[in-house]
Structures are given as C-alpha cells and as structure tokens.
Amino acid sequence: MKVAKKSPRSRLPGRNTLTLPADTYRAIDELRGELPRSSYIQSLIEREQRRRDRAEFLERVNAEYTPEVCAETLRVNAQYPIHGDA
C-alpha cells in the first residue's frame, strides 16, 4: 500500500489547517452568523487573550491592595467624603 504525502511546498507560509469534529464545525457555523469561519475563530482567540490579560492584571492589583492600603483608603474616604448625605 502506498501512502501519499503532501508536498511541503504546497503549504502557504503561516497557514495551517485545523481539524475539528463535525459537531464543532456545526456549532461554529451556527454561532458565527455572517462572519467567515476564520474571522470568527480569530475573534474567539483575541477575546480569550483579552480575558487572560485582564485576569493577570486583576491578580497583580489584588496582590497590591493589601489590608494596609484598604485601611488607608477607608480613612481617606471618611476624611474627605465625596458623596453628600441625602
């Protein structure tokens, strides 16, 4: 039995094929609306990157917001209220 191999020259640089189950392709096609499939996948990747960037940022700033910083913030807010009592 002969096995056919793709020529390395037939691939475009920077482009690859993504193999997914048929159910996944159906879900993508259902969700993407009028967007081309590749644009929809790219937007999902970009959205996930933004989510991860936000999560990393929140982790850093939460680590910096120590109990001492919180107490100081509360003292300043009490000393200089910006909302008047109604």
Please give the count of helices: 3
What percentage of residues falls in helices of 4 or more residues?
55-70%
Count the beta strands. 0
The gyration radius over C-alpha positions equals 26 Å
Span between termini:
86 Å
Global structural class: mainly alpha
Shape: elongated
- Sheet with the most strands, sense and barrel status: none
Topology as a string of helices (H) and strands (E)? HHH
Task: Indicate the mean pLDDT.
Answer: 85
Say what oligomer this is: single chain
Uncertain regions spanning at least 5 consecutive residues: none
Q: Note the beta-strand portion.
A: under 5%
Structure explained in plain terms:
With 86 residues, this protein is an all-alpha fold. 60% of the residues lie in helices and 0% in strands. It contains 3 helices and no strands. It has helices at 22-32, 37-64, 67-79. The longest helix has 28 residues, at 37-64. The N and C termini lie far apart (86 Å).
Notable traits:
3 helices; mainly alpha; single chain; 86 residues
